[in-house]
């Protein structure tokens, strides 16, 4: 689909072959990385060198400002035709840090007995010395990506992954803290839903912030066909909806898209789903959705099965990683949600997002294999 979406009036045969070749190299490198991480990854090793891992990640996130960018965000490292997006790998680092720290909280024998007597303040006081490291590092990653790199999409994904993992962690002392965070997140969700509702969009559209580009991304989902929006803030969404209309149920055929001929920006990356639907129809979209559901469902099934808390949290983190990318990409392309620039994992063009996900899946395979080995060993001992 990347190759098909890249075939436009602006690309030569040589350029299309080059895109295909680069994507194949990315795929093979990512596949080898997945196999290697499945074989050698160890949470204990990652914990031992956690500060080094955090330092390297921070360094790569910070040096992105050195490199030029053609977009509003400063989230790429570009060296001799090779582009690396450190924020994609930071998502995996966040999952490792949270799984390693929240999955190994010390067991306190009297915790259950004392829990009903502890207030939220006392709970936070006892938990904070244990979890301050991951909290500070994860918040640092998110703030650097949001404020320093100006990449809202990646910051949103990181935040949701961290919240899902935090809310799914199991420990007596985390109970009240999790309830407090859940209430805060629920309140924030209500506020966001009000902002992106028709009433909120109308208020923003009539306010002094109406000309702000990010505000226009929110308001444009309700004013898609305004003449000024169709050539600016809602251009991609309008063209994407045209692709859905052209494709219909069965599509116009692989390679026969019209929108990719210079009409739809980011056709090979953020908006590749529009090209998929135009060429392969709703059946193509359902096929991708089925693949996501199968992968996410499998991860969650194993998350309920594994005995390692660290492994369980990492599996949940990877499932949320996939789900968040799918939900925001599909929501943006179909104009249900504002655009965030989040790619459709495993489909969109790009080496960084692909390799980061493959590494995460490799670690998941490592977790599952270790759990299977432990179960087999236990069965043999019982026999």
Describe the structure.
With 383 residues, the chain is mostly helical. It folds into 2 domains: 1-23 and 234-383, no CATH class; 41-195, no CATH class. It is 69% helix and 2% strand. The protein has helices at 2-5, 13-40, 43-48, 50-62, 86-102, 111-115, 120-148, 152-168, 175-195, 198-206, 213-219, 227-230, 235-247, 272-305, 309-333, 351-382; strands at 77-79, 82-84. The chain has a two-stranded antiparallel sheet with strand order 1-2. α4 (50-62) runs antiparallel to α5, α5 (86-102) runs antiparallel to α15 (309-333) and α5 runs parallel beside α16.
Write the layout of secondary structure elements.
Blueprint: H1 2-5, H2 13-40, H3 43-48, H4 50-62, E1 77-79, E2 82-84, H5 86-102, H6 111-115, H7 120-148, H8 152-168, H9 175-195, H10 198-206, H11 213-219, H12 227-230, H13 235-247, H14 272-305, H15 309-333, H16 351-382
Antiparallel strand pairs: 1-2
Helix pairs in contact: 2-16, 4-5, 4-7, 5-7, 5-8, 5-15, 5-16, 7-8, 8-15, 10-11, 13-14, 14-15, 15-16
Count of helical stretches: 16
DSSP helix fraction: 55-70%
Numbering strands along the chain, what is their spatial order in the largest sheet? 1-2
N-end to C-end Cα span: 52 Å
Spans of at least 5 consecutive residues with low confidence:
none
Count of folded domains: 2
SSE arrangement, N to C: HHHHEEHHHHHHHHHHHH
Shape: globular
Major sheet details: 2 strands, antiparallel
Mean pLDDT comes to 85
**Number of DSSP strand runs:** 2
Q: Oligomeric state of the chains?
A: single chain
Identify the notable features of this structure and list them briefly:
2% strand; 383 residues; two-stranded antiparallel sheet; mainly alpha; 2 domains; 16 helices
């Amino acid at each position: 689909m990347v190759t098909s979406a890249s075939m436009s009036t602006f690309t030569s045969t040589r350029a299309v072959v080059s895109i295909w070749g680069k994507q194949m190299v990315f795929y093979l490198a990512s596949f080898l990385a997945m196999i290697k991480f499945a074989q050698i990854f160890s949470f204990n090793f990652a914990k031992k060198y956690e500060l080094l891992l955090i330092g390297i990640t921070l360094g790569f996130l910070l040096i992105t400002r050195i490199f030029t960018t053609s977009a509003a965000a400063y989230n790429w490292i570009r060296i001799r035709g090779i582009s690396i997006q450190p924020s994609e790998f930071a998502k995996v680092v966040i999952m490792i840090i949270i799984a390693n720290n929240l999955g190994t909280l010390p067991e306190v024998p009297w915790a259950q007995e004392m829990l009903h007597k502890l207030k939220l303040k006392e709970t936070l006081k006892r938990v904070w010395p244990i979890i301050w490291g991951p909290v500070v590092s994860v918040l640092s990653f998110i703030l650097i990506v949001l404020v320093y790199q100006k990449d809202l999409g990646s910051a949103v994904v990181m935040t949701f992954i961290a919240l899902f993992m935090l809310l799914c962690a199991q420990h007596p002392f985390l109970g009240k803290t999790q309830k407090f965070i859940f209430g805060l997140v629920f309140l924030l969700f209500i506020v966001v839903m009000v902002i992106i509702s028709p009433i909120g969009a109308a208020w923003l559209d009539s306010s002094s912030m109406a000309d702000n580009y990010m505000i226009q991304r929110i308001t444009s989902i309700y004013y898609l066909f305004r003449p000024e929006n169709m050539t600016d803030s809602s251009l991609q969404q309008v063209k994407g909806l045209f692709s859905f209309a052209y494709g219909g149920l069965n599509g116009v055929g692989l390679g026969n898209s019209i929108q990719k001929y210079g009409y739809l920006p980011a056709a090979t990356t953020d908006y590749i789903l529009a090209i998929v639907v135009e060429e392969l129809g709703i059946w193509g979209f359902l096929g991708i959705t089925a693949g996501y559901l199968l992968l996410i469902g499998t991860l969650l099934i194993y998350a309920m099965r594994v005995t390692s808390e660290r492994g369980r949290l990492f599996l949940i983190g990877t499932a949320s990683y996939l789900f968040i990318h799918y939900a925001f990409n599909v929501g943006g392309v179909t104009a249900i949600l504002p655009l965030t620039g989040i790619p459709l994992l495993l489909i969109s063009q790009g080496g960084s997002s692909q390799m980061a996900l493959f590494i995460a899946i490799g670690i998941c395979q490592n977790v599952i294999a270790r759990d299977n080995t432990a179960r087999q060993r236990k069965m043999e001992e019982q026999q």
